[in-house]
Amino acid sequence: MAVSDHVDFNQFMEGVKRRNSHQPEFVQAVQEVAEDIFDFIQDKEAYHEAQILRRIAEPDRVVSFRVCWEDDNGNIRVQRGWRVQNNNAIGPYKGGIRFHPSVTESVLKFLAFEQTFKNALTGLPMGGGKGGSNFNPKGKSVREIMRFCQSFMTELYRHIGADVDVPAGDIGVGGREIGYMFGQYKRITNQFTGVLTGKGLEWGGSLIRTEATGYGAVYFLANMLATKGQDLTGKTAVISGSGNVATHAAEKIVQLGGKVLTLSDSGGFIHDPDGIDQEKIDWVKTHKTHRRGRIEDYVNEFKGASFHAGKTPWGVKCDVAMPCATQNELLGEDAKTLVANGCIAVSEGANMPTDLAGVHVFKDARILFAPGKASNAGGVAVSGLEMSQNSERRAWKEEELQQMLKDIMSGIHATCQRYGDQGGGYIDYVKGANIGGFKKVADAMLAFGVV
Ligand code: GLU
Predict the structure, then answer these.
(1) Which end of the chain is more exposed for a tag (fewer CB within 10 A), N or C?
(2) 241 lines ligand 1 (CB under 6 A)
(3) Same structural domain for residues 85 and 153?
(4) Which residues bind substrate (predicted)?
């Protein structure tokens, strides 16, 4: 007699916690999904019989390795690297690489788990993975970064491949780092394949990949507002972060007629009541990416703006908010403040930036709230299009790609509406994204039997 997994939610989460003790971010990500999936699979015996929920909460594999490199002073340095290959039921593992001192196995497991559902929502054939290292790029010379990337790839290359696992960038990994890693992969394997995405345009990269995550998150926001008969014209926006996602989200909001009030980094946030226009955004892009500067320098450049050290921007009154920095940067109290100040929509540009308490505040207030796995999927979606272009050995035009990105974001929005419509005009986008992503992956897993 087969044992079915008709355990209750608390029993299930107890098991997840026991098996992943000391991995709070991973447990949090599983809980957020399981809260919605439990209801959905209640009466669907096939999922229970196949223990799908239990299996989906366990990565296919976690590879951990040592990364040695030599700094400019001739010291030997040792970091830990990982690749989490979470699930390849619907396509090769796909997901970014993060270099940041906060990276742990827990963080990468949560990111790979989220990535699996996000990638499924795009409608493209990509499984979920994530990798990275606790290496801190801050303050390192360009040559040190190159040597670290080469050493990282010298181990990683044996685990990846264009049809196996296709990494990309994430926090601390941009075009430059992808270049160093791609160069090393090509040198070791003697193969020029689409093994990484986010590549330079001269060597297999795709147009609009850089802009895609931020732009996509704003398209999703516009889709949500449209369900209420509204758009971004004249709306004030509070954005956190000042990297690739935040600056491109800001750019698209400005293009669509909104006014961006804030940006931030780990030192604090800047508030510009006059609005952060395109010229100011361009300055931030150059300052943060090329000069590797701090956001606080903004106030010396643009009059009327203020810097708030050590603070997040959620106390600034706004119509819409976009957390675009990192996980757990918007907490329960911040969510309450946003709602009390009249914020009507939140679109996550980062992965899991809102903690569980915050998610519950937004759900209870029934505001428009898009989880990152839906709203920030534009980046990986264009990565998927980069893979297609590499397979075809050609490059699509910018207008074609812009349209595809818009269509993919509208498709994800429609999936969320389909599974998250609670009646009375309220769409639970968290539930819609979780069920929409889960169903595709789980049905593929069912087809493969017990593997
Ligand atoms: N790191 C991005 C994300 O969180 C992009 C991943 C990719 O393009 O593979 O979705």
Answers:
(1) N
(2) no
(3) yes
(4) 94, 115, 118, 169, 383
